[in-house]
């Protein structure tokens, strides 16, 4: 069911200079702070013209972006904002289809003129609802998962293929062009799957298991298991929470945490080699988990959501952060998502709110652009035999990143960097 009634309000921004604005959910006082209020997932449409977030209690709100457009504020135009009632708590959502990178040319955000934009919502009861964004109509439901649908991804190839991951320990690949026919079920995880992502060339799926501590790679072409990157070598107790491929597909970032630290591992998905680890230690045992991470559209930065700060921005290979918000134990962050054109990161919280943060903008160097273009179509195995100087080969295969890095300790006065 679709409704155009306003379910949220724009809240005054705090003193944090990085915060652009905050959307707060309107709900009865009796529901505030109770289970079911969480914003587990947020997403921008491929062209950046729409933003969707799970508001809690089975409601998804879809709004036209940018939120502060003059036409929308003075009421001269119908913004087309709407909410979808899913009937069960929403844990994952994704816009699609997503055009291939060659077609995703940066352009001013504008609303789509056709009815092809879909929104997939993954529910607590295992059902996936597919919505037509512009009409607000449910297209069909996908049945098959037997647990919470935790994550959804449309590959960046323009097709109506949908990848889903669930607490039932499986991933499923659906063909929405065939009315949601299940193409393949991928089994191999031993417990809940926290997150999944698809490489830019649409050849690989990565998934992380929260409790089984597996980082699995799967072939999206043959629907087969490739390898488990972790191999079960780490003996300390920890949990995996998130993963993301770099835009060129040459890196896979995974997020994990234990009682005394959180860390991000950077992997080469082709060779299964761990290239680098960023680690943060803390004194309050069990009080600072890492919830989400995502590469920026140009691949220069990683957005990080943790319990003690609403947002950090890290440049892989560097010690410390390019930008970080105020230290705040009540930030309650759960998820993050970059705008397709960069410059803005949206984060969702446990209390059902959404915050939009100003992310650092940086012009990529010519070296970075050349590496990104090359690695988008050339694997590490194809790179290594090339007769290139050692330093150039190390740069092109990301072997120039220091193996172990620590986040810089920051004082309470260090409110925002970058």
From TrEMBL:
WD repeats lie at residues 142-176, 290-315, 338-357. The keyword Glycoprotein does not apply. Gene3D superfamilies: SOCS box, YVTN repeat-like/Quinoprotein amine dehydrogenase. Pfam families: SOCS_box (PF07525), WD40 (PF00400). It comes from the Eukaryota. Residues 360-402 form the SOCS box domain. InterPro entries: SOCS_box (IPR001496), SOCS_box-like_dom_sf (IPR036036), WD40/YVTN_repeat-like_dom_sf (IPR015943), WD40_PAC1 (IPR020472), WD40_repeat_CS (IPR019775), WD40_repeat_dom_sf (IPR036322), WD40_rpt (IPR001680), WSB_SOCS-box_domain (IPR051983). GO terms for biological process: intracellular signal transduction; protein polyubiquitination. Pathway: Protein modification; protein ubiquitination. The keyword Ribosomal protein does not apply. Keywords: Repeat, Ubl conjugation pathway, WD repeat. This is WD repeat and SOCS box containing 2.
């Amino acid at each position: 069911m679709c409704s155009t009634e306003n379910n949220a309000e724009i809240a005054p921004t705090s003193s944090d200079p990085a915060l652009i604005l905050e959307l707060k959910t309107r709900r009865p006082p009796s529901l505030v702070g109770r289970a079911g209020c969480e914003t587990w997932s947020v997403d921008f449409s491929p062209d950046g013209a729409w933003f969707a977030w799970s508001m809690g209690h089975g409601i998804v709100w879809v709004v036209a972006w940018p939120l502060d457009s003059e036409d929308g504020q003075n009421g001269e135009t119908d913004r087309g904002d709407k909410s979808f009632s899913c009937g069960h708590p929403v844990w994952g959502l994704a816009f699609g289809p997503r055009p291939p990178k060659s077609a995703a040319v940066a352009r001013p955000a504008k609303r789509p003129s056709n009815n092809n934009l879909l929104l997939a919502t993954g529910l607590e009861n295992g059902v996936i609802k597919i919505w037509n964004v512009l009409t607000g109509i449910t297209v069909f439901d996908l049945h098959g998962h037997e647990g919470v649908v935790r994550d959804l991804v449309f590959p960046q190839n323009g097709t109506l293929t949908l990848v889903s991951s669930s607490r039932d320990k499986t991933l499923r690949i659906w063909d929405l062009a065939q009315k949601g026919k299940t193409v393949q079920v991928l089994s191999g995880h031993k417990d809940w799957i926290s997150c999944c992502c698809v490489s830019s060339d649409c050849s690989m799926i990565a998934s992380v298991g929260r409790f089984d501590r597996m980082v699995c790679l799967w072939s999206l072409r043959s629907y087969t298991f490739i390898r488990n990157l972790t191999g079960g070598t780490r003996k300390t107790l920890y949990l995996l929470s998130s993963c993301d491929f770099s835009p060129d597909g040459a890196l896979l970032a995974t997020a994990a945490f234990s009682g005394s630290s959180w860390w991000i591992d950077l992997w080469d998905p082709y060779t299964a080699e761990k290239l680098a680890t960023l680690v943060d230690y803390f004194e309050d045992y069990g009080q600072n988990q890492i919830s989400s991470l995502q590469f920026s559209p140009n691949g220069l930065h990683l957005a990080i959501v943790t319990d003690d700060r609403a947002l950090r921005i890290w440049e892989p290979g560097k010690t410390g952060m390019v930008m970080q918000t105020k230290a705040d134990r009540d930030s309650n962050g759960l998820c993050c998502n970059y705008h397709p054109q960069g410059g803005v990161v949206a984060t969702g919280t446990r209390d059902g709110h959404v915050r939009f943060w100003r992310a650092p903008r940086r012009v990529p160097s010519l070296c970075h652009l050349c590496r990104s273009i090359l690695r988008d179509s050339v694997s590490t195995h194809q790179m290594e035999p090339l007769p290139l100087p050692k330093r150039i080969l190390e740069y092109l295969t990301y072997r120039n990143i220091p193996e172990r890095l620590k986040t810089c300790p920051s004082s309470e006065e260090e409110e925002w960097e970058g």
